[in-house]
C-alpha cells in the first residue's frame, strides 16, 4: 500500500516536473527567438524560403478542408434556420462563423498537425544525424538559422493561410447554399460583407499571428530538444502536435475573452 | 617507444615533445550523469602531426573530440587550441577559431535538405562570404575535385552512397582549408575497398594541406597508414601510446586484442 502511494506520488511529481520543464523550455525558446530575430546577422533568405515552403505546401490541404467546412456548415445549419424562418440569415451566419472562428481555428489546427509535426520531425532528425552539430562547427548559429527562421515563417504565414481559408470556406458556403435552392452569387456575398464589420475581422486576424507563433515555437522546441534517437524524433513530433493544438485552443479562448472585454464581441 | 600511463603526471601524451603544440588537453574530466567518460585525460598534438585515438565503443573517443571543438562542455580541465583556452572564448571568437578546425562526422552529417553544392557552400557563406565573394563556385568545384566527386555537385545527399557521403563530408570539412581536422570514425560502416579509398583520401589531403589531425577509429588499416602516433583510451584515460609498429607488438592484455 505504502509502495503504491509512493509510486503514485513519484508519477505525479514526475508529471509535474515534466510540465514545468516543458514550460521553462518554451519560455527559454521564446526569449532566445526574440533575441536572435532582433540582433544581426539576419537570415532573410532562409526565413523567406521557410515561409514559401510552409505556405505552398499547406495551400492544398487548407483549401480543401476550408471548402468542405464551409459547405458542411451551410448544409447543416440551413434546415434549422429555415425551420425558424431565418433562412435569409444564412449568408450572414456563415460569414460571421467562418471569419470569426471556423476559418482561423481550423487553419491553425491543420497547421499544428501538418507544419508543427513537420518542423519537429525535421529538427529532431537533424539533431539525431548530427546535422545541427555540423552547422555549429561550420560557425553558423543553428538556433538563428533553424529555429528563429521557422518561427518567423509560421508567424507570418498563418494569417495569410487563414485569409485564404476564409475565402475558400465562404465559397464552399455559397456552393452549399446553392445545392437546394439557387442563390445569386453577388446577393450571397453582399449579405456576407454587410454583416461583417471591423470588430469581427480584427481580433480573428490578430489571433492568427499568435497561432502561428505558438505552432512554430512548439514544433521547434520539441524537435530541437528531442532525445533518444529516432524514437525520440517520433515522440517529439507527436508531442508537438498535441501541445501546439492545445496551445491554439487556449490562445483562442484567451483572445476571445480579451476581445469581449474590449468590446469586440 | 611505448609509454604506459601509470600516474597522473605520466598521463601526458605528446606526439613529439618539443614541437609546436596545436591541441593541448589537460586534466580533462567529462561525465554524463553517473557515468564518468573521461577522467584526467591528457594529450598534446603538435603542428602537422596525426594522432589516432583508439578504444572500445562507448569509451569516450567522440566525446573527446567534441569537447575539443566545444560541441560538449567538459566538467573540468583545460582545452587549448592554438594556445587559446577555449573555455574562455566568446561565441564569436569560438566561431573564428572553428574556421581553422574541420570536423568529419561519423554519420557524415550532410544537410538533407540541401544539394551537395549547397552543403559545401554553407560553411563558406557563414565564414568567408565577405572575403571570397564570387569565388564560391570555384572553391566548391575544387573541394569536390579533391575527393573525386565533381559530378555529384547538383545531387541531393539521399542520392549518394555511404562512401560518397563520407567523401562529401570530408570535402565540406576541408573547404575552409582548416589547419586542424578531427575525424570521427571516417571508415566505419564502409566496405573494405571504400574504406581503403577513404584512407588514401585522408592521407592525400593530409599531405596536400599539411593538416594536424586527430582520428578516432577502430580501423587497424587506417591507424597503420594515417597515424604518427596512437593513443589507447581505456577507462577514461590515455592508457597507452606509441607508434603503430610499437603497439602492434604489445603484450598488454587490454590493448593486444585490438591487433589480434
Rounded to the nearest angstrom, the distance between the terminal CA atoms of chain A is 53 Å
What proportion of the residues of chain B form beta strands (DSSP E)?
25-35%
> What proportion of the residues of chain A form beta strands (DSSP E)?
under 5%
SSE run of chain A:
HHHHHHHH
Can you tell me the overall shape of chain A? globular
Largest sheet of chain B: 7 strands, mixed
Average pLDDT level of chain A: 89
Largest sheet geometry of chain A: none
Task: Name the helicity range of chain B.
Answer: 25-40%
CATH-defined fold name of chain B:
Rossmann fold
Q: Let me know the CATH homologous superfamily of chain B.
A: P-loop containing nucleotide triphosphate hydrolases
Unreliable residue runs of chain B: 6-16
How many beta-strand runs of chain B? 12
Please tally the β strands of chain A and state the result.
0
Assembly classification = heterodimer
Identify the CATH class of chain B: Alpha Beta
Report low-confidence residues of chain A grouped into runs of 5 or more: none
- Coarse morphology of chain B: globular
Task: Give an overview of the whole structure.
The complex is a heterodimer of chains A (265) and B (260). Chain A is mainly α and 265 residues long. Chain A has one domain. Helices cover 88% and strands 0% of the residues of chain A. In chain A, helix 2 packs antiparallel against helix 3, helix 3 crosses helix 6 and helix 3 packs antiparallel against helix 8. The radius of gyration of chain A is 22 Å and the shape is globular. The model of chain A has no long low-confidence stretch (mean pLDDT 89). Chain B is an alpha/beta fold and 260 residues long. Chain B has one domain: 3-Layer(aba) Sandwich (Rossmann fold), CATH 3.40.50. Helices cover 33% and strands 26% of the residues of chain B. In chain B, the strands form two sheets. In chain B, strands 1-12-11-5-10-9-8 form a seven-stranded mixed β-sheet. A five-stranded mixed β-sheet of chain B has the order 2-4-3-6-7, with helices on one face. In chain B, helix 6 links the parallel strand 9 and strand 10. In chain B, helix 5 runs parallel beside helix 6. The longest helix of chain B is centred in the C-terminal third of the chain and has 18 residues. Chain B is globular, with a radius of gyration of 18 Å. The two termini of chain B are 20 Å apart. About 4% of the residues of chain B have low confidence. The interface between A and B is medium-sized, with 15 and 24 residues.
Amino acid at each position: 500500500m505504502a509502495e503504491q502511494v509512493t509510486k503514485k506520488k513519484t508519477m505525479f511529481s514526475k508529471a509535474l516536473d515534466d510540465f514545468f520543464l516543458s514550460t521553462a523550455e518554451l519560455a527559454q525558446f521564446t526569449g532566445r527567438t526574440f533575441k536572435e530575430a532582433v540582433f544581426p546577422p539576419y537570415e532573410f533568405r532562409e526565413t523567406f524560403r521557410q515561409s514559401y515552403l510552409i505556405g505552398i505546401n499547406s495551400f492544398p490541404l487548407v483549401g480543401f478542408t476550408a471548402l468542405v467546412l464551409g459547405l458542411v456548415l451551410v448544409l447543416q445549419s440551413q434546415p434549422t434556420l429555415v425551420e425558424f424562418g431565418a433562412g435569409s440569415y444564412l449568408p450572414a451566419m456563415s460569414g460571421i462563423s467562418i471569419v470569426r472562428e471556423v476559418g482561423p481555428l481550423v487553419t491553425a489546427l491543420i497547421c499544428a498537425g501538418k507544419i508543427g509535426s513537420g518542423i519537429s520531425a525535421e529538427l529532431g532528425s537533424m539533431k539525431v544525424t548530427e546535422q545541427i552539430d555540423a552547422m555549429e562547427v561550420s560557425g553558423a548559429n543553428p538556433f538563428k538559422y533553424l529555429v528563429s527562421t521557422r518561427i518567423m515563417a509560421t508567424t507570418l504565414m498563418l494569417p495569410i493561410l487563414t485569409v485564404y481559408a476564409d475565402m475558400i470556406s465562404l465559397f464552399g458556403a455559397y456552393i452549399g447554399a446553392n445545392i437546394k435552392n439557387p442563390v445569386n452569387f453577388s446577393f450571397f456575398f453582399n449579405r456576407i460583407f454587410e454583416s461583417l464589420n471591423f470588430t469581427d475581422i480584427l481580433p480573428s486576424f490578430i489571433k492568427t499571428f499568435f497561432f502561428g507563433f505558438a505552432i512554430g515555437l512548439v514544433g521547434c522546441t520539441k524537435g530541437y530538444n528531442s532525445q533518444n534517437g529516432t524514437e525520440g524524433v517520433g515522440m517529439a513530433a507527436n508531442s508537438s502536435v498535441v501541445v501546439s493544438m492545445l496551445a491554439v485552443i487556449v490562445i483562442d479562448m484567451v483572445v476571445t475573452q480579451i476581445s469581449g472585454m474590449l468590446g469586440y464581441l | 617507444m611505448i609509454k604506459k600511463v601509470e600516474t597522473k603526471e605520466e598521463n601526458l601524451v605528446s606526439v613529439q615533445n618539443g614541437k609546436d603544440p596545436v591541441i593541448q588537453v589537460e586534466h580533462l574530466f567529462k561525465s554524463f550523469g553517473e557515468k564518468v567518460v573521461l577522467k584526467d585525460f591528457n594529450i598534446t598534438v603538435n603542428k602537422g602531426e596525426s594522432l589516432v585515438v583508439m578504444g572500445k565503443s562507448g569509451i569516450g573517443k567522440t566525446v573527446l573530440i567534441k569537447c575539443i571543438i566545444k560541441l560538449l562542455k567538459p566538467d573540468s580541465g583545460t582545452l587549448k587550441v592554438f594556445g587559446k583556452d577555449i573555455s574562455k572564448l566568446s561565441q564569436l571568437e569560438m566561431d573564428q577559431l572553428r574556421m581553422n578546425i574541420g570536423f568529419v562526422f561519423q554519420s557524415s552529417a550532410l544537410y538533407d535538405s540541401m544539394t551537395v553544392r549547397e552543403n559545401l557552400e554553407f560553411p563558406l557563406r557563414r565564414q568567408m562570404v565577405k572575403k571570397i565573394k564570387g569565388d564560391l563556385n570555384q572553391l566548391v568545384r575544387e573541394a569536390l575535385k579533391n575527393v573525386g566527386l565533381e559530378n555529384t555537385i547538383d545531387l541531393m545527399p539521399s542520392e549518394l552512397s555511404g562512401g560518397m557521403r563520407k567523401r562529401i563530408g570530408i570535402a565540406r570539412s576541408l573547404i575552409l582549408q582548416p589547419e586542424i581536422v578531427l575525424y570521427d570514425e571516417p571508415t566505419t560502416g564502409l566496405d573494405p575497398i571504400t574504406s581503403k579509398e577513404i584512407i588514401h583520401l585522408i592521407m592525400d589531403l593530409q599531405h596536400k594541406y599539411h593538416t594536424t589531425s586527430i582520428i578516432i577509429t577502430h580501423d587497424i588499416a587506417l591507424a597503420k597508414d594515417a597515424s604518427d602516433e596512437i593513443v589507447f583510451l581505456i577507462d577514461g584515460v590515455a592508457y597507452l601510446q606509441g607508434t603503430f609498429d610499437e603497439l602492434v607488438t604489445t603484450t598488454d592484455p587490454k590493448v593486444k586484442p585490438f591487433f589480434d
